[in-house]
Amino acid sequence: MMDDPLLIKYSVIMVDEAHERSLSTDMLLGLLKKVQRRRPQLRIIISSATIDAKSMSTFFHIRRRNIGQAAEDSAPSELPATLSVEGKGYNVEIHYVEEPVSDYLQAAVDTVMSIHDKEPPGDILVFLTGQGDIDAAVQLLTEDAQNNGLLVLPLYSGLSRADQDLIFSPTPKGKRKVVISTNIAETSLTLEGIVYVVDSGFSKQRFYNPIADIENLVVAPISKASARQRAGRAGRVRPGKCFRLYTEEYFVKEMPAEGIPEMQRSSLVSCVIQLKALGIDNILGFDWLASPSPEAMIRALEVLYCLGILDEDAKLTSPTGFQVAEIPLDPMISKMILSADTFGCSEEIITIAAVLSVQSIWVSVRGAQREFDEVKLRFATAEGDHVTYLNVYKGFIHSGKSSQWCYKNYINYHAMKKVVDIREQLSRLLRRLGTVLKSCERDTQAFYFSVYLLFLSYG
User: Which domain covers residue 149, as residue numbers?
Assistant: First the structure.
C-alpha cells in the first residue's frame, strides 16, 4: 500500500483468520474500507471460523452517496454478502467441571490421567498459558507416564524446530500422545490424531498501559470464540470430546463472546506511523473496526513527537520521519538505527536490532538448565544483553553459520538464520537511504559507550 495506496494492481483482497483481531488485521480492514470507497469494484473477502459476521458486514456497509457528493466516493448500497461454508467435522462432546477449579494446571494433569484411564485410544491436546505452565505439566505427566504409555510433548514458540516437529510424528503403537500447547494450536496448525481436548480456559495476552507506557504479558480468561476453536480441534478425524476446566454456567453467562481486540490493548506507535506514511493524517477520524483508547493514541503521538518523527502539526518530519517509516521495525529501534550513524556504530546496532526482531535466539532444553546457564555466561558481558547478542552473532558467523555450533550452545539455529536475513535487509535499506555503515569495533570503550547511549535514548 506504500507503493500503491489504492491497490490498483489487485481486483480481489482476501483477509484470512480475521477473528484473531490482530493490530495489523484491524488496521488493514480499516484501510480496505477506505480504498473501497474510491474503488467500489474492489472485492474484499474476509474469512474466519468464528467471527461475528453481522458486525463485520455492518462495518463494510457503505451507504449510497448523497446528491452532490464526489463520484469517486460512490459505493454499493447493499450490505456485503455473507456466505457460510460448512466444513466436514465430527461431533464433539463438551464436558464441564461441576465446581470452579483452584489450580488449572493440576486440574489439567488430573484430567489427562483420567482420560487415559477411562477413554478409548486417541491423542490428547491440552491448552495451557505459556512455557512455565507447559514445562511444569510435562514434568508432572512424565513422572506419572513412565509405565502408563503416555508420550508427553510440549509445544510453544521457544522450542527448537526439531522439538516442535515431534508433535507431527505418528504416535508409536501402544502409546497415547499428549501435546501440551499454548494457544498456537487453536488455529495455526492441525494435529490429525487429536481426539480429546483439555481446555484450561486461559491464555497469555499482551496488555498495554498507556499511562505508564508499559506492556505486560498477563494470564487472562479466553473468549467463547477461542473456546469453540479449541473444542473444534477434537473433531477433525473422528468424534471427540472436549473437557473444559470451567463451569457451564461461567461459559454461558460470564465468558465474553469475543476477545479484546489487540487494537485496544497495544501500543499504537507503529500503527500511527504506518497510517501517517500512507498519507492518513487525520488519525482520530480513521474508521476503526474497534476504536483504540484516547490515552493510547495520545501516548503514541507524544512518543513520535519526542523522537522527532512527527512535527508540531503531527505530520512526518523530513527526512527523519519518512526514513523511520520505511524501516519495518518499532519506531524507537528505527530511530536508534538512524542515530547510530552519528555515534559511528551502525554496523553493531543493526545486528542488535535484527536480534531484537526475533522472539528469542536461545533454546530452552528441559533438564539442562545448569548447562544452559553456563553456556550463556560464555557470551555474557557486564555491559548487558545487547552486547551479549553481538557476541552470539559473531560466534555464529565465525562458525560458518553452523547448525551444530548452535546446538552445542543452546542457540536457535532458525532464529539466527532469520537474524542474518533481517540484518542484510536492514543493511540494504540503509544504503538505499544514503547511510554509510560504520563500525566502532576497534575502539571498544567508545563502542560500549555508544551502545549505552543509544539504548538509554531509544531502547
Answer: 92-260
Buried b (16+ CB within 10 A) or exposed e, 312-325: eeeebbeebbebbb
Interatomic CA distance for residues 455 and 314, integer angstroms: 25
Residue 292 in contact with residue 265, Cβ under 8 Å? no
Residues 366 and 256 both lie in one domain: no
Which grid cell is 216?
Answer: 505486560
Using DSSP, state whether 118 is helix, strand or coil: helix
Indicate the helix (H) or strand (E) that contains 306: helix 294-306
Examine the domain organization and report whether 108 and 61 are in the same domain: no
**Plot region of 275 (φ>0 → left; ψ -120 to 50 → alpha; else → beta):** alpha
Residue 34 and residue 104 share a domain: no
Sequence-ordered list of residues with C-beta below 8 angstroms from that of 433, at least 6 positions apart, any chain: 323, 326
Q: What is the pLDDT of residues 171-219, one digit of tens each?
A: 888 889 999 999 888 876 778 889 999 999 999 999 999 988 888 989 9
The reply to whether 16 and 101 lie within a common domain is no
Contact between residue 47 and residue 71 where contact means Cβ atoms under 8 Å apart? no
In this structure, the answer to whether residues 183 and 256 fall within a common structural domain is yes
pLDDT reported for residue 32: 94
Q: Is residue 290 part of a domain?
A: no
Question: Are 64 and 109 contained in the same domain?
Answer: no
Low-confidence ranges of the chain (pLDDT < 50): 64-76
434 vs 341: CA distance, rounded Å: 11
From residue 83, alpha-carbon distances to 46, 53, 54, 317 in Å are 10, 9, 11, 45
Nearest to 322 by CA among 341, 308, 337, 301: 308
d(CA 309, CA 323): 9
What is the model's pLDDT at position 322?
A: 92
With cell 526482531, the residue in question is 357
User: What is the tally of structural domains in the chain?
Assistant: 3
Residue 452, in any domain of the structure: yes
What pLDDT, on a 0 to 100 scale, did the predictor assign at position 77?
54
In terms of domains, do 335 and 432 share one? yes
Q: Indicate whether 118 belongs to any domain.
A: yes
Q: How many CB atoms lie within 10 A of CB 161?
A: 12
- In the numeric block, the cell 501516548 is attached to 299
The closest of 95, 55, 101 to 290, measured between CA atoms, is 55
- Co-location of 172 and 44 in the same domain: no
Note the pLDDT of residue 67.
Answer: 40
Q: Which of 343, 351, 363 is nearest to 414 (CA)?
A: 363
Largest Cα–Cα separation, the chain: 79
pLDDT score of 281: 84
**Residue 452 confidence (pLDDT):** 56
Is 239 a domain residue?
yes
